[in-house]
Specification:
95% helix; elongated
Amino acid sequence: MQKDRQEKHQQSVEQVSSWGNTIVGKRNKRLNARRIREEEEEKERQKLDIEEAEIKAGERRAAIEHAKKLQYYQTDRVKGFHGALLLSEVIKEREAQIELKKEIDTAMKNADDHLLQWERNQLKEAALTEKGKAEVRQRDAALLRKTQEDQAEQKRKLAIARGSKI
């Protein structure tokens, strides 16, 4: 009987454990949900830890690579090479500046020559214009002198003619 009672009790406990609407069932559901949630959070934290470790490793590799590069650049051979490279770049830049200055000087000389030629042409044109005006004035003056002489001659002839009539 004791055994039978224990079996029935065991069956009862098994049936009750699958019920969700009892206090114990609700408690078990909450505990299971919490355990599952905590497991998922732990997985997420582990995933983040792995990602952070990869990022840190990448940063560490980059820092090591940078340090190695700096050490390499500090060697005498590389310093000499960089110095020679810098010198060649400076020489090329200076040659380019000299070439640019020559081009500017040539352009300025050409502009000055062009301006000088223009001024000479203007002076020639002004001289020719003045010469033409002077010739016109001389002709006008000669014509005026001739007209005045003719008029004076006519007055003398008229005065002589009047003088003889009187």
